[in-house]
Amino acid sequence: MAKRLAMKVETFQAKYVRKIGIRRSLVEFSNGDCVFFDNESRKCNVYEQRPRQCRTWPFWNSNLKSPETWAETCESCPGSGKGKLYQLEQIQEQADVFNV
C-alpha cells in the first residue's frame, strides 16, 4: 500500500496504521469507515493492495454473531450478502484467520 501511494513504509505507517494490542489496523474515521474507503463511490481506494483485515471482511466473528449482526453488516457494506455464495465451512475458515 505504501508503494502504491509512493510513500516510505515508515511514513505510511505513521499516517495510516494504528496498533490494537499486538496487531496493526488501518486508521478509521469516527464513523468506522477506513481512511481508504471512498464514501461517494462506496469503494476502496486501495482494493488490490488491501491488507488481511480487509481481505477477510465480512467473515469476521463480530459480523457472524447472529442473523441480526449479519443483516447490519449487509446494510452497511455494499458487497456483503451479494456475489458468490460461500459454504459455512469456508466462512468459518475465514473467520478464524482474523478474529475481530
TrEMBL record:
<protein>
    <submittedName>
        <fullName>Flagellin N-methylase</fullName>
    </submittedName>
</protein>
<keyword id="KW-0969">Cilium</keyword>
<keyword id="KW-0966">Cell projection</keyword>
<keyword id="KW-0489">Methyltransferase</keyword>
<keyword id="KW-0808">Transferase</keyword>
<keyword id="KW-0282">Flagellum</keyword>
<dbReference type="GO" id="GO:0032259">
    <property type="term" value="P:methylation"/>
</dbReference>
<dbReference type="InterPro" id="IPR005358">
    <property type="entry name" value="Puta_zinc/iron-chelating_dom"/>
</dbReference>
<dbReference type="GO" id="GO:0008168">
    <property type="term" value="F:methyltransferase activity"/>
</dbReference>
<dbReference type="Pfam" id="PF03692">
    <property type="entry name" value="CxxCxxCC"/>
</dbReference>
